[in-house]
Design a protein that fits this description.
disordered C terminus; 16 helices; single chain
Length: 390
């Protein structure tokens, strides 16, 4: 049996595709910087790539790395939400709204109900799942495309959250208070479990990143190693065939988007319950975590384990972009460069397709050479005459 070549391995193809997209994105970003101001282009790109390594002291580098990991946790959860639904044939563009719903529910649990961090995470999971189920029901029973319903629910979640959380803001402020500001709300902070000691005592680093990584493995196990995951993927490939095989295809659609929303909702709680960030009730656009999760999912090859590394990379360059010298470039340049790189990450699927089509494989025989070649003659068959005396 002929073994597959090295470049025909799907894992290798996904890795190479991701590297090519990253390098191409960095190159285009550098060209944009050259057009704007060529003098500082090299240093600006270096700062984007360096991120926390820009600091001279190792203690400061470790602390800054911790901040990146804090924001990687919710991004990873959004990425898992995207790829989970995509594996089942659904494009969960509503992950941003599910993320917002989770943030709203978590903060209600903190300031309204005074629950601890476990209860707030569960409340966030329920809120995210509820928004996912709404899209699932519309898709399964009303044939409403999940992209359309997801986009509409994104804005409903955003403005509803702004309205609800405005009652918890302090007078004269536009954002929610810090959790550590009172004893009642401090118990909702996700514990660091000693992990912060590895990051120079960074108080924001805790169990959040560990929970996100655990979810990545759980999603991988669910999709790859369970009968339930097989049924979900079968429904995504062909819901009519799944129905013919006795699977509840409508239930699977609703359950898939419900689980995807649950993951996104928990992702929001992993950020806001660290006290690293507060909710701004005046924001007019949904958080970028939901949309960056799409790039992270595809950059990671739609693999839950690959999403761990791709999520960190995207958050790494996003944080690095904030270090660009603003005396040479406008404040939006960091977002522009990060957006270019993230956009190019979506082409990993195209590169994997080129691998599968054989464009990177060895040179194939030319048709004209095959046409002129003499047909092979059948090998002679030795026969022994039978009959008579031998």
């Amino acid at each position: 049996m002929k073994k597959k070549g090295f470049f025909k391995n799907e894992g290798v193809q996904s890795f190479i595709a991701s590297i090519i997209c990253i390098l191409l994105g960095l190159l285009i970003g550098f060209i944009v910087l050259l057009f704007i101001n060529p003098k500082g282009a090299g240093e600006a790109m270096l700062r984007i790539i360096q991120n926390f390594l820009k600091w001279n002291r190792s203690e400061k580098q470790i602390e800054s790395l911790g901040n990146t990991l804090v924001k990687t946790a919710p991004l990873l959860m959004c990425s898992l939400s995207i790829l989970f639904s995509y594996k089942v044939g659904l494009f969960n563009i509503g992950v941003a709204g599910q993320y917002v719903a989770g943030a709203c529910a978590a903060l209600i649990g903190v300031f309204g109900l005074h629950w601890n961090w476990v209860g707030c995470i569960l409340l966030a999971a329920a809120a995210g799942a509820a928004f996912g189920v709404i899209s699932g029901l519309l898709k399964a029973y009303c044939n409403v495309n999940e992209v359309i319903s997801g986009i509409m629910l994104n804005w409903i979640a955003l403005y509803s959250t702004n309205m609800i959380l405005s009652s918890y803001t302090v007078a004269g402020r536009k954002d929610t208070p810090e959790l550590a500001s009172s004893v009642e709300t401090a118990k909702a902070i996700i514990p660091n479990a000693g992990i912060n000691k590895l990051f120079n005592g960074n108080k924001y680093v805790g169990l959040g990143i560990i929970i996100a990584i655990i979810f990545a493995f759980l999603v991988w196990i669910l999709l790859s190693k369970t009968k339930f995951g097989y049924e979900l993927k079968a429904t995504g490939y062909n819901k009519n065939a799944a129905k013919y095989a006795g699977m509840a295809e409508k239930r699977n659609i609703v359950v898939t988007l419900g689980i995807a929303g649950l993951i996104a909702g928990i992702g929001a709680s992993l950020l806001f319950l660290t006290d690293f960030s507060q909710w701004d009730i005046n924001q007019t656009s949904v958080p970028a975590m939901g949309f960056n999760g799409i790039a992270s999912a595809f950059l990671g090859g739609l693999n839950p384990i690959g999403a761990i590394f791709s999520s960190y990379f995207i958050q790494h360059i996003t944080d690095g972009g904030s270090n660009v010298d603003l005396t040479m470039y406008c404040s939006q340049i960091s977002d522009l460069i990060s957006a270019i790189i993230i956009y190019l990450c979506s082409f990993t699927g195209l590169i994997r397709y080129l691998f599968k089509s054989g464009i990177f494989s060895k040179k194939k025989d030319r048709p004209e050479e095959n046409a002129n070649a003499e047909p092979e003659q059948p090998a002679p068959v030795e026969t022994t005459a039978k009959g008579g005396n031998e």
